[in-house]
Inverse folding.
């Protein structure tokens, strides 16, 4: 009972804390902007960008990714009726396994640095960085919170929780995401190990294949929102269709969302697409890496989980729009608090999507490699192409997006109907008979 | 013969993957939420746990221990008499029966008693013991039992696994009406103590009962009850 109350409290307070955090971030960003303009004479948005890099990319993404490495163990334990890591205790309290972050970091950092003697020295050193950096860079274009006028002293600054607002927003995402394959391929090659090499080759063929469907799955959204900037796509999702339905990406582009999420999985190289690091057969492209170099590859995976959750949330789940009560919140809260609530909502959405990504890992067994390629080239690619054509036609016929939303809703309803419909009768009586046969 | 599995070809809906995946995630989510919101019941008797809310079956081993079933063969003990001396009469039956030859006995005799013997040394090498229980069956005096319900505790030295009579002699004392030292008296027992022991003595069960597993203080059920109380005290 105590646990139940505590968890309910946690589920309520968690988003609340995120809102307060967002409010603090807005304040710090505005102050940084103020300082940069007033003291250093820097151009506008310079200070805000630096503050956003520190706060969003280092604090939010890094903390979330590190926490996810523990959360994966803990959540999988809850899914599988276990307890999970709880042996490090602070005053008798396991704290949900969080002290393991410290223990893991300590372990990684103090491990002996063993390296294969025949390695390619330069590439071996820089491969972890190459796989780590692009994942981080992706977060630069993600709009965490809306733009808002913020008063610091007597000056008013227009700040947003977004590192960089660039015209080629989504193209930057594709470009940076495709850089990640270099890290894994180089790591596999530079280790001079057959297993690592196999892992690297598998990673490159898989990631390059899925980049195609990853890119194409977002084309529909680009056409629907007529922009490549993520913040404009998020803003466009606030418009109402038929006067009541928010134009969320998941409603307009359910197929696109599904394909994007699947391809994102393959890009992150997580189960069920974790063939580059199959622990039972080839260990993976990082098999020769010791200590923190392995830790960087390991962490890069979780950074990618966070970033891809953020991009999915931004494009398909309304970004920072709270969706429900939005009009009421906008009318009754002062703008700074409304922006903080929006950013808190966005972070909550990201957390939930991270959970879904981890949960799918514990739902599905791994694919075989030919199944992976079949899924990519024969299923996802034709689906996205069809989606692009249908979306284009729908927008051409009806630029107000209502036809597109109707098609999307139809697809969603069909998906739900197929999911709910039990296609095969359950046969519970089969087992006792089998037992009886087994015993005689 | 293993189960006959239904291995029909997947129908259209199953070969679409996504509906089944969504269903699977739903199942996972249900399991996650029930374990997230409801804590583990810490009853050490795992099978008796209420699994309607949380289905967690974990046992936090060193703190919580499964009660062993009656008849579990744990560490040996030398059963004491009511006056604290071992019931053992150093007859070597157990040492003879032992297939692992892990029991070493040296017999001594009391200076003023021409009949009764006692072990001056009774050593069991728990590393050699194969836990077969033959010694318990062979003993004509119910002097050695394996009802302690404990494992051999881990140790860093081999010597710590060699249990002598001082370590083995423990647990609740037992006296039977047929015990020779009670029937004819013994010079090692003072007369008033002898009366007390006679008063406490019980008839010997010729049919094996559950009693071996339920000696007070060593009962596995008592251990389980203790663990339950401990868990209740800690308010889990």
């Amino acid at each position: 009972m105590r646990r139940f109350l505590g968890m309910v409290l946690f589920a309520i307070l968690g988003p609340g804390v995120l809102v307060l955090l967002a409010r603090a971030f807005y304040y710090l960003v505005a102050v940084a902007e103020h300082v940069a303009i007033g003291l250093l004479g820097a151009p506008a948005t310079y200070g805000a960008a630096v503050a956003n890099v520190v706060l969003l990319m280092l604090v939010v993404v890094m903390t979330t990714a590190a926490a996810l490495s523990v959360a994966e163990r803990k959540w999988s334990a809850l899914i599988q009726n276990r307890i999970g890591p709880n042996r490090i205790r602070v005053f008798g309290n396991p704290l949900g396994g969080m002290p393991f972050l410290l223990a893991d970091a300590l372990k990684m950092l103090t491990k002996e640095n063993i390296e294969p003697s025949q390695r390619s020295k330069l590439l071996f050193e820089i491969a972890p960085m190459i796989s780590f950096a692009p994942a981080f860079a992706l977060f630069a274009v993600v709009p965490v919170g809306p733009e808002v006028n913020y008063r610091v002293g007597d000056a008013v600054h227009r700040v947003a929780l977004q590192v960089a607002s660039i015209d080629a927003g989504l193209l930057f995402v594709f470009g940076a995401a495709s850089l990640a394959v270099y890290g894994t391929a180089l790591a596999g090659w530079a280790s001079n190990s057959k297993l690592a090499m196999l892992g690297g080759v598998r990673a490159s063929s898989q990631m390059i294949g899925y980049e195609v469907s990853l890119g194409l799955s977002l084309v529909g959204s680009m056409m629907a929102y007529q922009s490549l900037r993520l913040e404009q796509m998020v803003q466009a999702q606030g418009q109402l269709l038929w006067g009541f339905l928010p134009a969320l990406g998941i409603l307009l582009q359910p197929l696109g969302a599904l394909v994007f999420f699947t391809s994102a999985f393959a890009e992150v190289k997580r189960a069920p697409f974790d063939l580059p690091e199959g622990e039972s057969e080839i260990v993976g492209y990082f098999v020769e890496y010791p200590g923190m170099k392995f830790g960087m590859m390991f962490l890069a995976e979780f950074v990618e989980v966070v970033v891809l959750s953020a991009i999915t949330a931004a494009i398909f789940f309304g970004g920072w729009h709270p969706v429900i009560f939005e009009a009421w919140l906008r009318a009754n809260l002062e703008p700074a608090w409304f922006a903080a609530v929006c950013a808190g909502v966005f972070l909550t959405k990201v957390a939930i999507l991270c959970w879904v990504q981890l949960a799918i890992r514990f739902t599905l067994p791994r694919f075989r490699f030919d199944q992976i390629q079949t899924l990519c080239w024969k299923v996802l690619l034709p689906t996205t192409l069809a989606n692009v054509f249908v979306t284009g036609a729908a927008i051409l016929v009806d630029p107000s997006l209502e036809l597109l939303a109707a098609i999307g809703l139809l697809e969603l309803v069909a998906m739900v109907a197929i999911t709910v419909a039990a296609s095969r009768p359950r046969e519970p009586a089969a087992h006792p008979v089998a037992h009886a046969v087994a015993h005689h | 013969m293993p189960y006959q599995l239904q291995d029909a070809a997947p129908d259209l809906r199953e070969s679409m993957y996504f509906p089944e995946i969504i269903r699977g995630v739903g199942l996972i989510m249900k399991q996650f939420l029930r374990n997230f919101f409801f804590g583990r019941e810490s009853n050490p008797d795992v099978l008796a746990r209420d699994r309607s809310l949380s289905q967690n079956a974990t046992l936090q081993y060193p703190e919580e221990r499964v009660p062993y079933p009656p008849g579990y063969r744990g560490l040996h003990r030398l059963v004491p008499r009511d006056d604290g001396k071992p019931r053992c009469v150093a007859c070597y039956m157990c040492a003879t029966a032992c297939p692992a030859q892990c029991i070493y006995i040296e017999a001594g005799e009391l200076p003023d008693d021409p009949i009764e013997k006692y072990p001056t040394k009774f050593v069991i090498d728990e590393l050699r013991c194969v836990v077969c229980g033959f010694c318990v069956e062979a003993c004509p005096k119910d002097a050695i039992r394996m009802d302690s319900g404990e494992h051999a505790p881990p140790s860093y030295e081999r010597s710590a696994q060699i249990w002598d009579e001082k370590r083995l002699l423990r647990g609740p004392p037992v006296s039977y009406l047929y015990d020779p030292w009670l029937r004819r008296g013994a010079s090692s027992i003072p007369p008033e103590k002898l009366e007390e022991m006679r008063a406490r003595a019980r008839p010997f069960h010729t049919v094996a009962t559950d009693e071996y597993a339920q000696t007070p203080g060593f009962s596995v059920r008592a251990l389980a009850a203790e663990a339950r109380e401990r868990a209740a005290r800690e308010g889990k």
Observations:
- Chain A touches chain B through 31 residues (CB under 8 Å).
- The mean pLDDT of chain A is 87.
- Strands of chain A lie at 148-152, 155-159, 240-241, 245-246.
